């Protein structure tokens, strides 16, 4: 098949720009709304906190993924809002440069839909992640309308992930559910337990300590005594 016949090549057959081989700065636009920024930040903080003892996973978002030294760029393509690369060093990066990362692409990508990006996220990006990145799982979520879908790569094509009875979608890559909780996209364990943020974890621990103190007082014991 000639380059002109290759659908992946044809899809991105715009001007080729040659970049340095590594250490590239991200080239992402500002986020559109507080909802989008807060949602991306939440997903990153949740997973980093949940996997704080792991040293084999990179979690990031809204940074450019450079996947060719002669980068074929489309004006419609920008880096994923949230993505995870397994079996990778968690160190901070300016961007994700595939040829500087042993050829690794994200295992999981989440895009946040908006009026200006939804068509690209459902079309161009979905095809890119399926045909070029070969990303095993792709999800999208609209923080305003709460549209939520997920796809798993099956024999080279994305197939919709069937939600469970709570509307959650299972991620084989993360070994976690993704689902909507209080109007935000969150992570859940296999038994449905909500993955807490650092702040929620601290609050839960304080509530347990308060309940214990109340119990001790009811038994006539001062919890503040050494």
From TrEMBL:
It comes from the Bacteria. Coiled coil: none annotated. GO terms for molecular function: endonuclease activity. Residues 29-176 form the Putative restriction endonuclease domain. Keywords: Endonuclease, Hydrolase, Nuclease. SUPFAM superfamilies: Restriction endonuclease-like. This is Uma2 family endonuclease. The lineage of its organism: Bacteria, Bacillati, Cyanobacteriota, Cyanophyceae, Leptolyngbyales.
